[in-house]
Amino acid sequence: LDDWKALHTSEVKKCGEVLQRHHCRSVCHKYGNEGRCRFLFPHEVVDVSHFDAETNSVVLMCRDDTVNYFNPYILVSCRHNHDIKCILSGKGAKAAMFYISDYITKMDVKTYEILSLL
């Protein structure tokens, strides 16, 4: 069991560095987000996860401001980037709903390409 834990920890570090670290690129500054990352990087460093009664939200621990929030078991098992957030209600839930529906229904062919076929 100790060998597995050591190997898992090593894999989390390797995968986390490659898959979860954010590096700002031009896509981060689309849609009028000049001078700031639209994915909200860098994150605020938070020592301990806690519930913020003032904003009625769960604030997750963040030790590195350029790494996505992730689950170590999902990261090592699936080996892909992901972003974990606690979204219970309000603006965050609405934004997530629109993002997910837009993402899963996006077309591979752009509208202007379809119109050019007519």
Description of the molecule:
With 118 residues, the protein is mainly alpha-helical. Helix content is 42%, strand content 5%. It contains four helices and two strands. Strands 1-2 form a two-stranded antiparallel sheet. Strand 1 and strand 2 form a beta hairpin. The longest helix has 19 residues, at 2-20. The chain starts with a helix and ends with a helix. The model has no long low-confidence stretch (mean pLDDT 84).
Structural class label? mainly alpha
Strand order of the largest sheet: 1-2
Helix content: 40-55%
Major sheet size, sense and barrel closure: 2 strands, antiparallel
Work out the helix count.
Answer: 4
**Percentage of residues in DSSP E strands:** 5-15%
Q: Please count the beta strands (DSSP E, at least 2 residues each).
A: 2
Element order, helices and strands? HEEHHH
What coarse outline follows from CA principal-axis ratios? Answer: globular
End-to-end separation: 63 Å
Low-pLDDT segments, ≥5 res: none
Would you tell me the overall average pLDDT? 84
What is the radius of gyration computed over CA atoms, rounded to a whole number of angstroms? 18 Å
Give keywords.
globular; two-stranded antiparallel ribbon; mainly alpha; 118 residues; 42% helix
Give a quick precis of the structure.
The chain has 118 residues and is mainly alpha-helical. It has helices spanning 2-20, 72-78, 90-105, 111-117; strands at 50-52, 57-59. It has 4 helices and 2 strands; from the N terminus they run αββααα.
